[in-house]
Amino acid sequence: MSLRLEVSSRLFHFKQPAGTSRGVYLTRRSWFVTATDDALPGKVGVGECAPLPQLSCDDLPDYAHVLEALCRLVERKGGVDYALMRPYPSMLFGIETALMMLHAENGVIFDTPFTKGEVGIPINGLVWMGRHDEMLRRMEEKVEQGFSCVKLKIGAIGLDEELDLMRRLRKRFSPQVMELRLDANGAFQPDEALKILASLETFQVHSIEQPIRRGQWWEMAGLCRRSPIPIALDEELIGVNIAGMKCQLLDEIKPAYIILKPSLHGGMHGAREWIGMAEQRNIGSWVTSALESNVGLNAIAQFAAHVYGCPTPMPQGLGTGLLFTDNVESPISIEADKLVYHPKHHAT
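Request: output the structure for the sequence above.
Response:
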């Protein structure tokens, strides 16, 4: 057997609690696929499989066993069976990354101005949920770091407090200076969502992600038609892995944007499919990470620069991979409001 895939796992620890409306993350487990090939002596490719607990469609109790079985299948076939692996997006992302890295030169899977170190990728500064004073401090830190686009996680501390945060931000920074994105992670009830969105309109918000829980297509379609704020779908896309279902979702809901996380939405292969379908319908999109370590973040950043061009037309959501105290070495870093690639320092 020429191609070999080995699986290992590692637990990462957040620098600070990562709060969403679904709960707080303190640690993050990832599985790593290491690829070697007798035909490529001395070369190694590593990919990250990072399902989000109680969210990923392939968050399975026997995750490691299924991943091992898929790796054996890839070894026998000599490549990825994308049709077979559609139900396993995080596993697909890790395996396809490992194989691409195996054949890459110096860790570059997509040759772009980004991987040449010539152009950085603009990203949004992410402010996690927390107490009012914590969120205000984090928000001010992002502004001081040079971010011109800030994304607030909302839906957990109370609407009045969150409105106060946005009021303070807008008092200091106009929409021309600071773009404001919101992410509700499905926190609102369908019968209250439109009223809440109307209360947010005064802050001239760029977009709000997933205002209500996924799976309520009729209600979400109604919100997209009537909302004063453009709606972006994120969790809504999870588990929608068949091409026909993707088309149906976009045609019925008609969102302003979709947000692609390769670990959740079909790996790079599935994300590219989503982007193409969205473009056909004049639906905007951007790519973001899903709390991967720097291994996954590196691959996603290279993919974003490849599919959207350099610089990308709007800020991407690619800063979250730098949140761990015990991260792996990486060729990427955040400089002001951009993700920057250092060509001579590829991930190990």
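The first strand starts at residue 3 and ends at 20.
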